[in-house]
């Protein structure tokens, strides 16, 4: 904890003479000094657009490449499968519009009542095309997803399930491996909102076998940006909305316009911070992905330890806040 405290300047603030504690998980996280440094270093040495034959542009190309690899290490996939964008909401609207191009009237999309609206409205927008959006219920006694309702609503008309990894409202973590298997068995795709979950545990998109997953680095100690993972074959098979001169190659064809390069420099530092945190627990680990997974396991363990007394004392009851 001492090492962590020294990384975050925001933690040395006082409010009315008292040290601060940030309990604003749903609103985002504070960033380590290394992330601030990486952003300002990029702006002071390399600020340029991409693909130019001059030094700052070449450095920018390097940052873009490295940022994709950093997020690939965080999620356990290939760099080509990583798409950057302004935030999760914008990326989800881009993807839903592209998916909508391949849907017809009467096709169904399932969302759940545990979703943030950023994982509902982009799918509701497809009602313009006659797509039907159905909502999976939760079990009211413990705020977990009603799997019987999911099984009941899955049908040969289902094209996609949009589901959160963890609810930012009640904290329920969905049993994604089981759910994804059920959805794939009827030939539909799965889009996972991992925005809330990403700060709390390791993510392995290959093991999950989800088709798409989104997260936002500002929720795990990084800058305000969004990241979309898509299976290579899925990203290639869809037709994104883009300008004509833009590349047709993935992931470039999904990254419309000029990207937030200083944010990408910050994302590289964010991922390196997490890897450094993992190495605090396991100094012998040299592989970045392994160090990140270690950091996220330890974060999860520590979070559980903090919550346990609250749960045991009945402050939280099965994911719901129990008011005294
Ligand atoms: C679970 C969840 N999904 C999506 C979002 C929206 O993310 P963004 O602000 O990156 O669009 C949030 C933001 O709080 C969230 O908590």
Structure characteristics:
single chain, 324 residues, alpha/beta, Aspartate Aminotransferase, domain 2, seven-stranded mixed sheet, two-stranded antiparallel ribbon, 15% strand, binds pyridoxal-5'-phosphate
Quick recap:
40% of the residues lie in helices and 15% in strands. It is of the alpha/beta class. The chain has a domain at 45-267: Type I PLP-dependent aspartate aminotransferase-like (Major domain) (Aspartate Aminotransferase, domain 2), CATH 3.40.640.10.
Q: Tell me the β content.
A: 5-15%
Low-pLDDT regions? 317-324
Structural class determined from secondary elements: alpha/beta
Distance between the termini: 31 Å
Spatial sequence of strands, sheet with the most strands: 3-11-10-9-8-4-5
Q: Which word captures the global form?
A: globular
* CATH topology category name of the domain at 45-267: Aspartate Aminotransferase, domain 2
CATH superfamily annotation of the domain at 45-267: Type I PLP-dependent aspartate aminotransferase-like (Major domain)
Number of helices: 11
CATH class value of the domain at 45-267: Alpha Beta
- CATH architectural group of the domain at 45-267: 3-Layer(aba) Sandwich
Percent of residues in helices: 40-55%
Oligomer: single chain
Unique ligands: pyridoxal-5'-phosphate
> How confident is the prediction overall: mean pLDDT?
94
Counting DSSP E segments of at least 2 residues, the number of strands comes to 13
